[in-house]
Amino acid sequence: MLCADWKEITLTPRFPLGTSKGVINTRAVWYLIAWDDQRPEVKGIGEAALFPGHSKEFPADVRTKLLELCADTSNWQQRVHADLVAVPSVRFAVEQCLKDLAASGSKVLFPSEFTLGRMGIPINGLVWMGDKATMRERIQAQIEAGNRCVKMKIGALRTDDEMELLAEVRRSFSARELTLRVDANGAFTHANVMPVLERLAKLGVESIEQPLAPGLYESMTEVCANSPVPIALDEDLIGLNFTAAKADLLDNVKPQFIVIKPSLVGGWAAAQEWIDLALARGIGWWITSALESSIGLNAIAQWTATLGVNVPQGLGTGQVYADNIPSPLAVEQGRLRYLPETAWDLQRLEP
Fold this sequence. Notes:
Layout: E1 2-11, E2 17-19, E3 22-24, E4 27-36, E5 39-48, H1 59-71, H2 76-80, H3 88-102, E6 121-122, E7 125-127, H4 132-144, E8 149-153, H5 159-172, E9 179-183, H6 193-202, E10 207-209, H7 217-226, E11 231-233, H8 243-253, E12 257-260, H9 262-265, H10 268-280, E13 284-287, H11 294-305, E14 329-332, E15 335-338
Parallel strand pairs: 7-8, 8-9, 9-10, 10-11, 11-12, 12-13
Antiparallel strand pairs: 1-4, 2-3, 4-5, 6-15, 14-15
Helix pairs in contact: 4-5, 8-10
């Protein structure tokens, strides 16, 4: 018989994580833990990591569903395709938990050259918001760490200051030498976005994520059609949990890229559906974490490694926490790696 429990913990970033929507000082995540009563020492673990301000679900939704799942473990597979569709982070936690349990709790969910430590996943270095001097230092640190793709959060400082930071990078590195991405988190409006996009284009910026707030489909359609910088939809994907709605977004808004966060769109199967729909329409894509702990990041990274990606993914966020779950994941020279000789330390998840 399958037994289950859940645990909530709070993670602490090494520094305030600034975005145009505000600053993140703490991060709550939830773990679903399951075992067979005949083998209680073997546990599968999955992480639910909704993102306040982005997710359509709320902490109370997560706690309620986890209580229900632990009270009745008989129908998890069916619920993945039923009521859990509306709580994407919990749906993903169930996927992870069952996959890990089937792998005897090893956390090797998708065996590959990645989990053997023989290859790494290309990632972008992420530059969080701060004052201008701090962001300059963070950009330099990402470049010195070996990243050849740097993504900078924009939309909170003065536009002139942000453009100057990007221009400083371009004076040292051409677009062929260093890829620049920016993430606006919906900071701009239909009235002010085009001048920003024109300035970004002159700096050879590869793409901008979510320049307008999600849900402004008519405005975003116009921006995607006329922008001199390719547009990547991110928050606009969240909450579209059915195939028809996903296809409708891509067919009508016509972005150049989509940014897929498995924790926020409903897990591996839901993320794969987004990929398939994008490929059928000639739309590019990459996978991004949503500030999960090592458990969720590991699940996303191992799956991503099976996709044969060759463009930088947004999977370098595990290092932002001072108290993350110790794991084999490591960032080296612009790549996320899995070091099989390094053991997991799951003491924090014990009862």
